[in-house]
Each structure stands twice: as C-alpha cells, then as structure tokens.
Design a protein that fits this description.
The protein has one domain. The chain is an alpha+beta fold. The chain has 1 helix and 7 strands, in the order E-E-E-E-E-H-E-E.
Length: about 160
C-alpha cells in the first residue's frame, strides 16, 4: 500500500537548468509579533525577517539549479535566505520577498481559507477538541497557475478572528 499523500512533480524550467520548485506565502496577519524562543539548530543559523509596516505578505521562493546550469541573476527580492550547494554540482536557493496588497481581497481570501481549515479541524476533533488547542495553526496549499509549482500558504492561528 502506498502511503504517499501527494507526489511532487517538478515544474517546467523557467530558465536553462533552473526550476521554481515551491513558493511559501505568509500573510502579515499570520506573522507572530513576539514568537516564543526557538531552540537553536544543531548546524547553521536561524534568520528572522521583519516586514515593513504596510507589507501584507512575506513570500519565500525555492529555486533549484541543475549541475552545469548558468548562474542566475535574481532581482526585486528582500533577501537571500540561503543557498545550499548539492553534491552533484547543483544548488537550492531560497529568497524572501515582501509584497504589499493593493486592496483587501487578498486578506479576505486568507480569512476564508482560515475559516475552511478551522471548520475542518472542528469537524475532525469536535468543538471541544479544537478549543483545547491554545494556538491551532494551519496551512493551505495548491498549485500556481503560471507553472504548476506547489504553493503553501501559512494560515497562522486558526482561533484568531473567529466569532466568540
């Protein structure tokens, strides 16, 4: 029996030897202003990115380079989060970008996804089981219309904004 929920299929290359593997979107309303202390990693470091006031989303894009692919110049990003050289000569590159919503439709869509995730958890756990969680969190995912890459949206605290 195959227990795999979803298999990842590499999107089309956007440049010679480069694929845009996944996008992780974090709406400003999902970002904690004072997150609890993190346990330091065994190797490497943890980077923190603060959004400028008025920014409504942080987006992290993961690019994968095949061995022998030409270098790539990336513009209009906030920061390079990290670059991991692969043993076969390729690399994995992660970038952070801030996006500002031009209207309130994006946040309304996020709140709709939160409501759906909250309802799903309540359906599975019952209202009392859901209420036992101090800060239940969720994520939504799908595929980009431009190249089919997976897109994951951090929905944050599913209790926030819920009617009392």
């Amino acid at each position: 029996m195959d227990r795999v929920f979803q298999r990842w299929e590499a999107p089309e290359a956007f440049a010679d030897g480069w694929i845009h593997a996944v996008t992780i979107a974090i709406p400003g309303s999902s970002i904690q202003s004072a997150p609890p202390p993190l346990k330091p990693p065994k190797k490497g470091t943890v980077n923190f990115f603060e959004l400028d006031p008025g920014s409504h989303q942080a987006r992290f894009d993961v690019l994968i380079k095949n061995a022998g692919a030409p270098e790539l110049q990336v513009e209009n990003i906030h920061a390079q989060v990290g670059r991991l050289e692969l043993p076969g000569g390729g690399c994995v590159w992660v970038f952070a970008t801030e996006l500002t919503a031009v209207d309130h439709r994006a946040e309304a869509g996020i709140e709709n996804l939160r409501n759906l995730a909250r309802g799903h958890m309540i359906e599975r756990l019952g209202l009392e089981g859901f209420q036992e969680y101090d800060k239940p969190v969720g994520a939504g995912w799908g595929f980009s219309n431009d190249n089919g890459r997976p897109t994951i949206i951090d929905l944050g605290d599913l209790k926030a904004g819920q009617p009392t």
